[in-house]
Design a protein that fits this description.
By secondary structure, the protein is of the alpha/beta class. About 30% of the residues lie in helices and about 20% in strands. The chain contains 9 helices and 9 strands. Strands 3-2-1-7-8-9 form a 6-stranded parallel beta sheet, sandwiched between helices. The chain binds ligand BV8. Ligand BV8 binds near residues 19, 159, 185 and 210.
Amino acid sequence: MCQKENTVASYKNIVVLTGAGVSAESGVATFRENGGLWEQHRVEDVATPEAFARDPDMVQSFYNMRRAQLASVGPNAAHSALGLLEKKFDGHVTVVTQNVDNLHERGGSSTVIHMHGELTKVRCSYCRNVFEWQGDCTQASRCPGCFNQPALRPHIVWFGEMPFEMDRIESLLRACDLFISIGTSGSVYPAAGFVSLVRSIGHAHTIEVNLEPSDGASYFAETRHGKAGSLVPLLVDELLV
Ligand code: BV8
């Protein structure tokens, strides 16, 4: 690992940004590759508030299908390696994920920020409360809190909506001494801009782990191209040496 001014032993605050590529080897479809989710569904039809207002049944079924798939997939070696890093590393490790699956938690990570929401949660448009939700959510589903219906939407950040916990994420990015990006095309903001913020602060090493160069590859001090399931365990081994 090219540490520049940092040595492995000196890292104390690691932020790991992940995208759909970290779940690809678990069998979860990515968004922008051949056969990806956006090939089967136009973003404008399923991942915007306007789409939900226009055709709530279509949007609900898009997320119901993905929620149901969670039962048939499991964490891969990349998720497990990140869980091990959090447990064994002498410092802080935070996973900031764009993913809405629960594979990081099932892989052993406990400090996970889901900036784009979670498939296993729904939110009531009336009482604003968020509820764990396993099965299908439809317009006939009644809010467990205020009993309104129709009231529930996926607890997902759609395009044009503010991602969750941005203040906390920015603080973590400003304080980190190692920023690792795994399995993201770097095409969606504000996540795609995180590496630029880290570089502007100037004291962190930055590593991209991705199948191929992302849109933001040139911002990283170090890039490792290949499958996350192979590369992330190796990187974690280096960090735990
Ligand atoms: C916001 C919903 C502000 C959840 C998603 C111009 C400039 C800057 C911003 C914008 C702009 N125009 C529009 C915007 C805003 C917009 C945006 O960025 N648009 C893009 C298209 C330009 N962003 C937003 O709207 C965000 N909100 O900006 O709010 C605001 C301010 C004030 C008030 C209100 C609002 C909200 C963005 C969140 C949108 N929701 N999804 C869901 O359905 O899942 S985004 C969607 O894309 C997913 O969340 C996903 O996580 C995200 C990013 O995709 P990736 O995870 O990177 O997946 P992708 O398929 O693209 O890439 C996978 C990568 O993995 C590939 O590179 C591949 O090579 C690699 N890979 C594959 N296999 C492997 C692998 N790598 C390793 N190993 C493997 N095995």
